[in-house]
Amino acid sequence: MKNQTTHIREIVSNLIKQPSEANSQLAGIVLDMFCTIYIEVANEFNLPSYIFFTSGACSLGLFYYLVSLRFEQNKDLKEYKNSDEELTVPCFSIPVPAKVLPAVFVEEGPMPDIFLGNFKRLAETKGVMVNTFYELESYAIESLLSDSSYPKVYPVGPILNLEDKESGGSDRQIAADEIKNWLDEQPENSVVFLCFGTMGSFEETQVKEIAIALERSGQRFLWSLRKPGGKGPMQFPIDYDNFEEVLPEGFLDRTKGIGKVIGWAPQVAVLSHSAVGGFVSHCGWNSTLESVWFGVPIATFPLYAEQQLNAFQLVKELGMAEAIRIDYVRDMNGEKPSEIVGAEEIEAAIRRLMAEE
Ligand SMILES: *[C@@H]1O[C@H](CO)[C@@H](O)[C@H](O)[C@H]1NC(C)=O
Description:
Blueprint: H1 5-17, E1 29-32, H2 39-44, E2 49-53, H3 57-71, E3 86-87, E4 96-97, H4 103-106, H5 111-120, E5 127-130, H6 138-146, E6 152-155, H7 171-184, E7 191-195, H8 204-217, E8 220-224, H9 251-254, E9 259-262, H10 267-271, E10 276-281, H11 285-294, E11 298-300, H12 307-317, E12 321-323, H13 343-354
The protein binds 2-acetamido-2-deoxy-beta-D-glucopyranose (NAG).
2-acetamido-2-deoxy-beta-D-glucopyranose (NAG) is lined by residues 159-161, 198, 284, 286.
Family: Belongs to the UDP-glycosyltransferase family.
InterPro entries: UDP-glycosyltransf_plant (IPR050481), UDP_glucos_trans (IPR002213), UDP_glycos_trans_CS (IPR035595)
Keywords: Glycosyltransferase, Membrane, Transferase, Transmembrane, Transmembrane helix
């Protein structure tokens, strides 16, 4: 990112020198939440910086809290790794277990300080636009607004991409049409949708437990099932050539008619369909907002980043989701095998999620 500074400086300089009709006068710069390093460029031109924060107000408040623990109180956050401690975080109305802190803040090595150092600089900006809305996180937003040491918070969301249309005739469009046709045949609110985000995949043992849970629950289901992309950090999932290589023997035959296993999922189209009544989700913030937007309740199965915190917020702080797990963590470096969540636990949560009331 540092290497891009010269390019950004040049672009800003040109915008100022050659104002167009569309931007007669540059009034400020909006930076992505991970790009606070470019506040320096804005400062050179005497422009105010604003941040676009892609997660919610609770996450923002927690990040501020961790920044102050680390840099004002000189606390070693590694102590919180696997700790049973609970933290009193101002933007939460209840204590926050250390186990739901994003792993990147408590791990060994230089990463915690790199991330926290980035978020420390939020304080130098004039405002933070958060992808949330007041009614969803009123407690956290009030808490952030009441502390004048933070830049002003603007709840500008939910910002969603509701038109993720695929181009006609493409493989994805064909898949999306097939999924829609299948959903059209299912009764209202009867289908549980399982989807785990851009980076979501499980090892074989975990896939089998999910399959057993689904079969025993007797629920109709639509399951986006993708394969780990390989060893090494941050590997994108890939599609299975054949789902039978990972599912329990006979699963596809036995669940024919009530369930459908797919690869990539057109998530917005699925969540907006009236047949879908529940969502087993990794609790990424986009998915969380989409679930709220379409009124499809979540059963939480967080994997990485701030997803454990989001799961905690949904289940405990807001009381609007069922927990499969709250502090489950998927090791994104693919080094140590993940803990396995058993079929009974998953089945019970799916039953609670899909219950009539
Ligand atoms: C979240 O949604 C926005 C569109 O609103 C998209 O640009 C972004 O890539 C999504 N983030 C993730 C992690 O998928």
